[in-house]
Predict the structure.
Amino acid sequence: MAITGDQRLLKRINRMALVRLVRSQPGLSRAELSTATGLTKSTVSLLVQELIDDGWLCEDTVLVTGAIGRRPTPLRLDGRRLVMIGAELSVGSVCVVSMSLNGEVLEREECTFPLQTSAEVVLAQMAGLIATQVGRQSDARRELLGIGVGVPGAVMETSGVLAVAPNLGWRDVPVRAMLLAALTRLGVVDLPLFVQNDGDVAALGEVEFASGPVGDPLLYICLGVGVGSGVVVGGRLLLGGRGFAGEVGHMQMQADGPRCSCGRSGCAEVFIGLQAMANTLGCSIAELETRVAAGDAAALSVLTAGGRHLGVLMHNLWAMLDPAVIVLGGPACRLGKPLLGIAQETFEALARAANLETPPVTESRFGDLSVAAGAAALVLHKLLQPI
């Protein structure tokens, strides 16, 4: 039995190695895959055919070059048949998407909930949206690979327990177990379910759905009601000893600063978080966005201060992690240059003072869907990395 299990695992590893190669270099032929992996041509041919039959790969059109002899058939990811579902739990809302292997958003569902709503009720709402997506993808004759969930707080990955989410007021909530139970009641069973921090999954989304090479390490900074981050190094998440790495919104930036939702004072979140900036003006987040768009002087002043703090945070994380690229994502990015432009200027000024060049800073390719899309990428990540 042990030998059989080892053989199955080896086959999974080889299959996913081929998928990763084709994803990173679309158009590779079977012969080129054999050379790149060291696997025999017959083994590659066998595995590629299985991957085509299973919906992972497809053959591309052979280009006519005029050369003599049989031309190799290029391969690429098949974005038509396999689907991952990604769900984002944020403060006051849930968003669920279905994603193709190529990173295309196929379906999107959202709902809102009052902040005092219990975890059981919120996760039941999420399960309902997921079940709707499962039904739609089944009707479209697509095969589901699994479900990923991004949550705004520290997650114990192996158990799927949300240890603490200050902005939700949740502690030690068994998100994975509760969600599985709710899905089972709705008839959704036998699908892998993974739960991880929102910044972590958003970072994975930038890597797993990239159309070309991405910087390594990649630092993603999640900007919303809370502030978080995710770091991908060598194709894997940097999670820390307990899985709590990335909670940068609770890095102290001012010892005697305003009190944070986590109980400490002067955290990054109280200067950069959307709700904190709106509270400074005594308005809602929606009103903050409206006032910024209208050029309101007070709102722009708050964003300028927030942008400077964000620039300092970017500098501090850069000094600690030395990322090759920094990606900014989340709802706060809608505020645009009044926040992000000031942050970039502050970041570059600090770097110039040390006579250093900053890494590229970009915005997430998925915009407001960066966490939900990243949660779907979490499923793909788990499948592409069998060990």
Summary: The chain has three domains: 2-77, 82-202+371-384, 215-364. The two ends are 19 Å apart (CA to CA). The longest strand covers residues 82-90. Residues 82-202+371-384 form a domain with the Nucleotidyltransferase; domain 5 fold (CATH 3.30.420.40).
